[in-house]
Amino acid sequence: MPGPKKIGFDTLSLHAGQHPDPATGARAVPIYQTASYVFKDTDQAAAIFNIERTGHVYSRITNPTNAVLEERIAALEGGVGAIATASGMAACHLAITTLMGAGSHIVSSASIYGGSHNLLAYTLPRFGIETSFVDARDPEAFRAAIRPETRLVFGETLGNPGLEVMNIPEIAAIAHEAGLPLMIDSFDWEGSGRFAELTEPYAGFHDMVFTEEFGPAAFITRARKEGARDFGACMSAHTAFLILQGMETLSLRMQRHVENTRKIVNFLKDHESVEWVSYPELPEHPDHALAAELYPKGCGAVFSFAVKGGRAAGQAFIERLEIFSHLANVGDARSLVIHPASTTHHRMDAEALKKAGISEGMVRVSVGLEEIDDLIGDLKAGLRSAAKVAASAARGNST
Amino acid sequence: MNIDVDGASVYIYTGGQSIDAEKQSVLFVHGAGLDHTVWTLPARYFVRHGLNVLGVDLPGHGRSGGSLRTSITAMADWIPQVLDACGLKETALVGHSMGSLVALEAAARHSERIRSLALLGTGVPMPPRRIRMITRRSIC
């Protein structure tokens, strides 16, 4: 029997989750900038509150503009649902707390975003939720850290700033063997569908047992009905609209991001003022083979490299740049750089930096969509400045 | 809730309520390869309106154990066994797709136990080969 016809990623990026607006025929997704929605009658209101029919009540919980974004993400990821939240950390908190209660335990990769690390290491313990951190490159360490009270295994696709590639299929198998879901920050990876914390009656909704009532949609339903409602970190409809606009050209932009990144990596890896370049597509990267298997379309637009001459040369390089912006995030349409040793990790001494895989001359780069010649020209100028600083430091050392 | 029917554990979704023999009941039969979760929304409606709801997982489906019944007639004969196990004399019966054929057959064979009938997504005749295919896949 032939399977259902599959619609391609690029087509879904433009169409999934939306039909022209039934009220006006609007082709673009309308921005429903409203907090609440009028019920047709008292019975409809009661039915929606009782979750026996779908319908919008309050934009903190659902909103028609956000619903298009959520359905589109779910379609692109092959998931059963999605919730748009006010920020990445709001999503992280909502997803984790949906599965956790006081006394439960998480096994997490140690190579995760600083904000997530702070949530797991310092904030959640105040609420009785403990986390063990293990090496992202060591699947057996995940297995060894699982305890009877473990409820979740957590990690990221690519570590930051070291770009450790997590062996998601192997770690997923270890988690599933223990009956645990694997949660991945960056994009969803086939969940186990076994959410132990959702099989108990939830008093907030008439003793609802989410796994029984919603099957594979249990997790997303509880996250919305409980966490989105109670914690309230919802996305504004206007933001959802802007993200939808961006998603329409997602594939095109990613192709250019990756294309520019490959050219820049190739330029830097043979440059005399560069000590090393770390990008999973390079054969010498420790996760090269795994990255090729998991990310055949490319390893994104973020990589790190080291300027010869240490911290002073790294700073000189950054200060000379004109097109690259010096700031703390990644993934912008514009090209970005940061010098971790003098900024995000400046409190670490030389030994601690080494342990975290950060050298004093290391620069993290996020490649944007500009003309490649302009980007390389900017980098050349920066490297010249770095080389001058390195040379004068070398002269200083020799006298 | 889980009950025992014919020596096998059967899962019945009741919308969080216990079965009360004094109330009227409505029993939902899902289609091939599906389970009770297709009935969550209507089930909650009938619970709110004071009825017993029995969203069964057919043998070998969803959370129910037991061996798969290989004919519509066998599935239809299983329905009164469920009613017996729940202490219910009669019920309204709702069926979807293959479940609608089960409901129709149960109403014909056990009319004294079936008060009324609602059929959704029904095609007569249903293609039996297709049903066998989907059903076989659901237990793999």
- Tell me about the largest β-sheet of chain B: 6 strands, mixed
Distance between the termini of chain B: 24 Å
Overall spatial form of chain A: globular
Number of strands of chain A: 9
From the N-terminal CA to the C-terminal CA of chain A, the straight-line distance is 81 Å
How large a portion of the residues of chain B is in β-strands, by DSSP E?
15-25%
Summarize the structure.
Chain A has helices spanning 9-15, 42-49, 64-77, 88-99, 114-123, 139-145, 168-177, 210-214, 218-231, 237-247, 250-269, 288-294, 310-320, 350-355, 372-398, and strands spanning 105-109, 130-134, 150-156, 182-185, 274-278, 302-307, 325-326, 336-338, 362-366. Chain A has 399 residues and is an alpha/beta fold. In chain A, helix 1 (9-15) packs antiparallel against helix 3 and helix 4 (88-99) packs across helix 9 (218-231).
Would you kindly provide a written description of the structure presented here, covering whatever features stand out?
The complex is a heterodimer of chains A (399) and B (140). Chain A has 399 residues and is an alpha/beta fold. Helices cover 42% and strands 11% of the residues of chain A. In chain A, strands 5-6-9-8-7 form a five-stranded mixed beta sheet. In chain A, strands 2-1-3-4 form a four-stranded parallel beta sheet, sandwiched between helices. In chain A, helix 5 links the parallel strand 1 (105-109) and strand 2 (130-134). In chain A, helix 3 (64-77) packs parallel to helix 10, helix 6 (139-145) packs parallel to helix 7 and helix 13 (310-320) runs antiparallel to helix 15 (372-398). The radius of gyration of chain A is 24 Å and the shape is globular. Chain B has four helices and six strands. Chain B has helices at 40-48, 72-86, 98-109, 128-138; strands at residues 2-5, 8-13, 25-29, 52-56, 91-96, 114-120. The relative contact order of chain B is 0.20. The interface between A and B is medium-sized, with 17 and 15 residues.
